[in-house]
User: What shape does this take?
Amino acid sequence: MTLRSDTSVLANKERPSGLKSRLFAPATVQKMLAFVSLILLLVFFSFASPAFMQVDNMLGILQATAVNGVLAIACTFVIVTGGIDLSVGTLMTFTAVICGVFLTYWHLPMWTGVLAAIGTGALCGVVSGTLTAKMKIPPFIATLGMMMLLKGLSLVVSSDQPIYFNDTENFYRISQDSLIGYLVPSLPIPNAVLILFALAILSSVILNRTALGRYTFALGSNEEAVRLSGVNVDRWKIAIYGLGGAICGVAGLLIASRLNSAQPALGQGYELEAIAAVVIGGTSLSGGAGTILGTIIGAFIMSVLTNGLRILSVAQEWQIVVTGLIIILAVYADILRRKKL
Assistant: This one.
């Protein structure tokens, strides 16, 4: 009885320190800093330009974040394993082109184009995962090769011409319409943003509440230990890359619906902003740590920064310079964060 009482007291004494350690964990601090940075950016650009806080501009930021945020979610799963995926941008484009082929060239129902885009993304992700897991090609090289391959295939399949969805009724509604706007006319939030948040919630559940999520963190923490414990590491790694590819298919649908066309030359460069958003949000490039919430915050930071610089008439080349600096600083912050662990 005394022992039970002492144990209970000891447990009660340990709880505050456990809570404190979670509150001040490097990943949590990084998310808090990212959120504060987002607020500061919004305040700065609001004072710098009256046009920044206009409704149309805010909607534009939300639309841009929807695409980049979905790609960043795809990257999060791969980066948590300790890998990298440089093909997410061109994969997004390729899935949009495939959707265009189904709907515009072959005149099939819209649902077939949606499934084709997501399925094509998953298949390409499985191929990247197989190259990494089975053939032991480093993720950087495997996905770099996949990036170039998909860029070429997009141009070949589309005959180097944009594919327009003018004959596909209601396709634009996937991204541009507003379900909330019908219910609350004063809040015309695009459907693309709803899809982003719904996907973020689903991805967070997968990452934190399923076997796939547990193995995603485990692979990033110590892949060899997972392998020695008897787990089929290759199968889980391929599944993770396949899931990331399917999410890229969703991004392809969003950008095709937003532009009402599949632009085969588009896509390259999106991977840099997606990876930057993931790292800014607190996901470690060495693997084993990361959250979907942090990634979404990072995606909003990238979109607000890009939009704000454009509103201030900063030249395009300097916008690219700023993006590059942010990526370097984010990676350096990740290095410092790892040293403290």
